[in-house]
TrEMBL record:
Coiled coil: none annotated. This is DUF3700 domain-containing protein. InterPro entries: DUF3700 (IPR024286), Ntn_hydrolases_N (IPR029055), TSJT1-like (IPR044828). It holds the Pfam family DUF3700. It comes from Fraxinus pennsylvanica. It comes from the Eukaryota. The lineage of its organism: Eukaryota, Viridiplantae, Streptophyta, Embryophyta, Tracheophyta.
Length: 254
């Protein structure tokens, strides 16, 4: 999967940007080249663009007993790429009043809509209730917001980076990220979620702040930082519950 968000739509942590000087001999690929390469390597892949602000590209997994499920879904201008699986999907669908035949991508969109529209649970609690190995990227076209998360079991890998034109790229293919973002990329932290208006936080440890850890590659160059939970630093307020538990409660970090 591949998601590209133009500069200004998503403001990632500044530590994701590498301070290393770019090598003149290496020309980073632009968004169009990255997309073309993704689709040329994919079987039955496709992409969806949104007013030159965002782009989502999807390809079904290749036949393999080791391949994780991949899904794409769009409902009411909310689009989701999901990979992995939820062991308690039937229970979650029943809880949210969804059809028994609904898949994980459909559920994630409904859960996002519930959170966006002032649902009864804080965001971190909704994600902690998901059992299984999962990762997803949501783009809400009307609200122009991005929401992404990665399961805590570390079974799936997700990467994010900042391209030379300032765009933010998210993909499970590290080579795609490297070819455009060079050193300004890092693994997305497991057990965490990112919202374009609220930033990065851990849904496993919502009362703790996140901290950036310097990362140096095999060439000795400083890369985009890794992010991990800071066990000694707490957020200023408890996440609220009830009717006030909307995005405004998202891990207010000072």
């Amino acid at each position: 999967m591949l998601a590209i968000f133009k500069k200004g739509l998503v403001n990632p942590p500044q530590e994701l940007n590498s301070p290393a000087s770019p090598q003149a001999s290496i020309n980073p690929k632009n968004s169009e080249e990255i997309l073309k390469g993704f689709l040329s390597d994919a079987c039955n892949g496709f992409s969806v663009g949104f007013d030159d602000k965002a782009l989502l590209a999807y390809a079904p997994p290749q036949p393999s007993f080791k391949a994780h499920q991949r899904l794409f879904c769009g409902v009411n201008d909310i689009y989701c790429i999901f990979w992995g699986s939820l062991n308690n999907l039937c229970t979650l669908n029943k809880q949210y009043g969804l059809s028994k035949g609904g898949n994980e991508a459909m559920f994630v969109i409904e859960a996002y809509r519930t959170l966006r529209d002032r649902g009864p649970y804080p965001a971190h609690q909704v994600l902690k209730d998901l059992e299984g190995s999962f990762g997803f990227v949501i783009y809400d076209h009307k609200a122009e917001t991005v929401f992404t998360a990665l399961g805590a079991d570390d079974a799936l890998k997700l990467f994010w980076g900042i391209a030379s034109d300032g765009s933010v790229m998210i993909s499970d293919n590290v080579d795609l990220i490297k070819s455009s973002c060079r050193k300004s990329f890092a693994p997305f932290p497991p057990g965490c979620m990112y919202h374009s208006e609220r930033g990065l936080m851990s849904f496993e440890h919502p009362m703790n702040k996140m901290k950036a850890m310097p990362r140096i590659d095999s060439e000795g160059a400083m890369c985009g930082a890794n992010f991990m939970v800071d066990a000694y630093s707490k957020v200023n307020s408890m996440p609220r519950v009830g009717s006030e538990a909307n995005w405004a409660t998202w891990g207010q970090q000072a």
